[in-house]
TrEMBL record, chain A:
Allows the formation of correctly charged Gln-tRNA(Gln) through the transamidation of misacylated Glu-tRNA(Gln) in the mitochondria. The reaction takes place in the presence of glutamine and ATP through an activated gamma-phospho-Glu-tRNA(Gln). Subunit of the heterotrimeric GatCAB amidotransferase (AdT) complex, composed of A (QRSL1), B (GATB) and C (GATC) subunits. One of its GO terms (cellular component) is mitochondrion. It comes from Macaca nemestrina (Pig-tailed macaque). Keywords: ATP-binding, Ligase, Mitochondrion, Nucleotide-binding, Protein biosynthesis. This is Glutamyl-tRNA(Gln) amidotransferase subunit A, mitochondrial.
Amino acid sequence: MLGRTLQEVSAALKQGQITPTELCQKCLSLIKKTKFLNAYITVSEEVALKQAEESEKRYKNGQSLGDLDGIPIAVKDNFSTSGIETTCASNMLKGYIPPYNATVVQKLLDQGALLMGKTNLDEFAMGSGSTDGIFGPVKNPWSYSKQYREKRKQNPHSKNEDSDWLITGGSSGGSAAAVSAFTCYAALGSDTGGSTRNPAAHCGLVGFKPSYGLVSRHGLIPLVNSMDVPGILTRCVDDAAIVLGALAGPDPKDSTTVHDPINKPFMLPSLADVSKLCIGIPKEYLIPELSSEVRSLWSKAADLFESEGAKVLEVSLPHTSYSIVCYHVLCTSEVASNMARFDGLQYGHRCDINVSTEAMYAATRREGFNDVVRGRILSGNFFLLKENYENYFVKAQKVRRLIANDFVNAFNSGVDVLLTPTTLSEAVPYLEFIKEDNRTRSAQDDIFTQAVNMAGLPAVSIPVALSNQGLPIGLQFIGRAFCDQQLLTVARWFEKQVQFPVIQLQELMDDCSAVLENEKSASVSLKQ
Amino acid sequence: MAAPMLRWVGRGRLWTFARVDGGSCHRREAPTGSTSNWIRGQSSVAQQPLYTTQKPRKGEHKWAAVVGLEIHAQISSNSKLFSGSQVRFSAPPNSLVSFFDASLPGTLPVLNRRCVEAAVMTGLALNCHINKKSLFDRKHYFYADLPAGYQITQQRLPIAVNGSLTYGVCAGKKQSQVIPKTVRIKQIQLEQDSGKSLHDDLRSQTLIDLNRAGVGLLEVVLEPDLSCGEEAATAVRELQLILQALGTSQANMAEGQLRVDANISVHHPGEPLGVRTEVKNLNSIRFLAKAIDYEIQRQINELENGGEILNETRSFHYQLGCTMSMRDKEGKQDYRFMPEPNLPPLVLYDATSLPAGADPQQVINIDQIRETLPELPSVTRERLVQQYGMLLEHSFTLLNEVGLLEFFQNVIKETRAEPKKVTSWVLNTFLGYLKQQNLAVSERCGSDVYTEESKCSDSEQPFMDALTVCDVNVFSLLGAASPVTPSALAELLDLLDSRTISSAAAKEVFEELWKREGKTPGQIVSEKQLELMEDRGALEQLCHSMMEAHPQVVMDLKKGNPRAINKLIGLVRKATQSRADPAMIKEILEKKLSS
């Protein structure tokens, strides 16, 4: 039952094959078994069981709220959850219990979903590995999959396999690990530069970033307001569409959501024929750092579309190479601004120093934020200084416009959907990953995903195949703004063609104790 | 201190200006001649008062002051600028705070339509160009009562620009002439108010009240077209009246709904502008005038003594009457402005640009707002002058006092007396009594609320200084507490008009009315037997005996001191308990004297 998709388990609930409480308990027990993955920061067991009980009553009375009623979900720990600690994996918000639900959380709860817990991330979502939060790194469930382990046995160079676990990617790595390890059926991530799509690709999931303005950001603790969107992590495209259907729509609490009506429920039409479709391949995305395996899969995917009758065109997004540096300026500037509210006065961490308000601010912020956050605040404040503003922020905004226009031009040339890699390669081992600092890593890892956020477009990462090492590789589809439905329709067609294998975690689920014993040394901290 | 007369010779013309004690500058003679343009090319203000040191020496350069104001007016609205919290003065601390106001992580601003309408209305009333598209920015600084670490404001593209405010300063021998002046308005921007900090020095802690945090403000930025405290005070008073007429702000300075920061510098005319200081948080019109004049004089003295002016923020100490450096920041503050990413551009429409089928709830139509503008103070004054033949300066006084105009109009409605008579009674007698009362109120409170020193004279000259620096709501007394109702005054004026009582008796009746004993003027007159003495014979008899009783006065008169007759008139009136008509007494006395 746990290995099923959201759509399948929803059908099972409706048919009475399983009750919400049974389902909830199974997930909770698996969360405990997979505690070593460090996917969850907070497990909201009591809340989930109570919600399951209510859902069960509804099913008994034939008053189900819909596809999401009784479905266990997880939420990244940068969404405000009423009465449930929301930390952003930072000392700054340790112990902070918000008094309100983010709009997206409220919408899921209103649909009867069960909130299993809050998932791990990089501190304030700043990172691409889910390795830089105060609760320690998230482990990629694929590290323990049969597919990966068998390949590693064949490799004579493999060292101590238990210390060689893989990162999930990030920053929504906890959400990705939670869905990938079957502890829930869907999870919310956030996506500012690729933070949902990147871990989705590394964990073999569908990672969807909706159009900016389609889904409310109210209650999402911001990284970059002008680029953040709530992301959706699921096992298949249909599941993502179901969740999007529940989340999309204008929110009076978020003035950047759009009022144009969208089709609801968010049903994806079946696409039997791709011959009328035009797929664009951005030539600038073919870079030397791209692994040969990803490149070859990308090329095969393009061939697949072409062989099924679609038009496949090479397109140019000429300003792509400026995206990283442009993002750096805009992101750090907004970070500097957004983080100003964390001063220790109203909520969150406060230091013991009380000689003056200024001294208290300084010490609170030094203690509360990690080096990555502090570094970005410092850079951002530099870019916003009066003497620098024109040279950095204003220029970056202009470049952002050029990048957005690149996409507009591509779509105006007749392209329906762009096809690109999601990441440079498959997930790397943690020890490998931390050889580079956060900034370098973020710059490398967001290269295919970031420009989409600058342009506000919808994009989805679809798992395509396993690498030679037995690890998932994802490809990304990018759609026109607010053509999220069309994008997902194409993605679903593609998903059906590629038949990505299910992660084989039997060993993990059957005998977690062995794994757990080996992991005692790791810095795992799970809060109940 | 006597007002030293100064002279400055420039551009081949001789202009004479005066400085009076207290730093307020009053122009005794309106200069003639070409428009000067030595202050930032301005042309709206034709003359500038000039200053000098206490002991002007021959050949010395004179100083001119340049004053610009930033005025923050709290928007009168039910809820805050970006949140649904209620706006209310003196609510229990932190009782009006939404999650957004407290800057809880993840909360977002939602613009309040009422505040936008108030800004458009104010912009139109101040002759501004309304920007069809305006933007919001974040202004960053750390302060305990600014929970987000930034204020949302409109730095780059404000909602209204390039307006003007016309106000009147008094001049002439009795300060009774009103000279219209204009100050240019640079911009009007929407922004958030901050919370309030309460510093407890004993326990060295600061208490924060966020009730005010996020309340909508209109920041009105004036160009530096002003040159002294009085000009600034009258301009702000006029703005206050306009805001109150529009209903866009209650603009009560005592409750902090109108706050003024003044940028002040001095220089020698024809030379570059001097270094300016900013005097912050002036919360009464009187202190605004005092602070500006003090600061101007301080800068002049500093420069005359070889010192220099620092670009700094100062505060006005109202008890000591001086400005002091706030010494709050090391070096200049960089606010690191950034566009507010959570608010799309604010787009306004007019009749021509309004999209067809637009939801009226979703759009704001400038032309529609223009149609709903109420009568502005300047138009009201003009109407009063036209309709009732009153002097312009009287119309200023009527408007300056909250509620006085309404009172006046109610009296006019009910009385047969001439409007001029009504004007005189309302502005002299009635206002005089009110002001005496108010003085007592404010002394008891010990607050810094401005109160006009009462000048309750019998002359026909109304309180012109009320026009210049009045910020007092005497009519909080009026509505509920004024002991004299418009009907009572109307009745009293009717008695006067029908010559039932003398004007002296009328004053006595008024005094009785003020005691609040619930009697009508008619009742008082009959109880006190104040009816005018119509018996000429009796009056002649009385005059005769009075002349006999005071031979010395009669002698004086005959020696050629015509004013001595007043003494006799007074004595006769007293003897009749003010029931006789002084004109008739005078006539009888003169007749007797010349016979």
